[in-house]
Structure formats: C-alpha cells, structure tokens
UniProtKB/TrEMBL annotation:
Segments for region (Disordered): 30-66
Organism name: Autumnicola tepida
Compositionally biased region (Basic and acidic residues): 32-66
Domain of life: Bacteria
Protein name, per record: Uncharacterized protein
Record bears the keyword Transmembrane: yes
Alphabetized UniProt keyword annotations: Membrane, Transmembrane, Transmembrane helix
Transmembrane segments: 6-24
C-alpha cells in the first residue's frame, strides 16, 4: 500500500519534523504570552495593593490626628 522509495520517505520525515517543530514552537509562544500576561497582572495587583495600603495608612493618620 505504501510502497515509497527512500527519497519519498526522507521528504515525509522532513515534513513531519517541520510540522512537529512548528506545533511545539506555537505552543511555547502561547505559554510565553500567558506567562507574560500573568506576570503583568501580578505586578499591577501588587501595585494596587501597595497603593491601597498607603491610602489606608494616610487615612488612619488623619483620623488619629484630629
């Protein structure tokens, strides 16, 4: 049924390797995008947390200073 010569098998192997490489590379790129998005989210979360903490401390100082 699959009676290919050596050169055809070589071409098929090269195509398969290229296909697997591009699949692997796209999955890695997607993971990098997700990691970057999560890292940015975490950074913004930490900034908001610091700002809220500072605002609460300022509010406490004003209320205790009356």
């Amino acid at each position: 049924m699959l009676d290919f010569d050596r050169q055809t098998w070589l071409y098929l192997a090269i195509i398969a390797i290229a296909f697997l490489f591009f699949r692997w590379n796209s999955r890695r790129a997607k993971q990098n995008r997700n990691d970057r998005k999560n890292r940015n989210f975490r950074r913004r979360y930490e900034e908001r947390k610091r700002e809220n903490k500072k605002a609460r401390e300022d509010l406490d100082e004003k209320s205790s200073g009356k």
